User: Fold these one by one.
Assistant:
Number 1:
Amino acid sequence: MIAHIKGKLVEKNPNHVIVECNGLGYMLPISLQTFSNIPDQENIKLFTHLIIREDAHTLYGFSNKMEREIFILLISVSGVGPSIAMTMLSSMDTEEIQHAIAHEEVEKIRSVKGIGVKTAQRVILDLKDKILKTYDLTKEISISNNTIKNEALSALEVLGFARNKIEKTIQVILKDSPNISLEELIKRALKNL
């Protein structure tokens, strides 16, 4: 495995760069994210991932390790090849991709050229747990859950329901559906109270 390449930047394009290293020119496909992060200086360092196929050996370049890790996760999903993964990394930054997967935003993932509804759902199904564990987004989800929980509690208390009964009902709903919207949470709670 080739972990990184360091050398002279010979050519820089929105979809690839050529880096000269010890007399060899390496052409590396890159995302628009990497394109905008690469400085216009002579010597650069890119993190890489090598994919070997029958017809080609392709070395992909990334400006940081996080982008490379997200790329590796994306290509592990059935139906997502390197070109779709690079398109996704060009369309959204790594934080947006992680957020979209963690919060099951099918439409946001589907908005990437080449990804349909089924592939978007598969990306979420295959990667949500990995994203949540690896990149510690559980805090973010629990913070948004606490906000939603407090707002729902206030709204239902105003309607005259007992606070302890509301808390138990909301807790059960949030456990089953952690990404529920405030409106949906209140509707479900009203049905169960």
Number 2:
Amino acid sequence: MRRSVLLTGLAAALAITASSAALADTPSDFVVKAMKGDNSEMMLGRLAEQRAASPRVRAFGRTLFQDHSMGKAQAVVLARSMGVQPTDAPMDVATDERQKLMGLNGPAFDREFVRYMIKDHQEDIADFRKEAEARDGRVSAFARKTLPVLHKHLDIALRLRG
């Protein structure tokens, strides 16, 4: 009996997960997520500019801030053309990472910042690639245009990791 209840619960959880994964974000959802991602990278890039021990990590922070500022400007234009309200909010995970980074100094800060940027940009590239291939139109064109910048950031982070 207990096993049957457990298996039923597991099957229900898997069904919910599968149906959630099958639901694609709308183009509007993607644009909002892109703006939040840019806000996150700007926030964390500025922090690295100020707190990183390595001049190379500080320079990477500056690059992130500059590139994602431009990306945000493009995303805002796209959002407004779609009737989507621009946002200045970062991703929750980036806010959590900022808190973590605030407790670190020196090489420990640099290692954690680079580790996070590698993981984050790998996820971003997957999301942007999926959007670029999933649809046609302005949002897909925006995703395709952004991918080379995300790849550049990942390449820098991987070189910094050594």
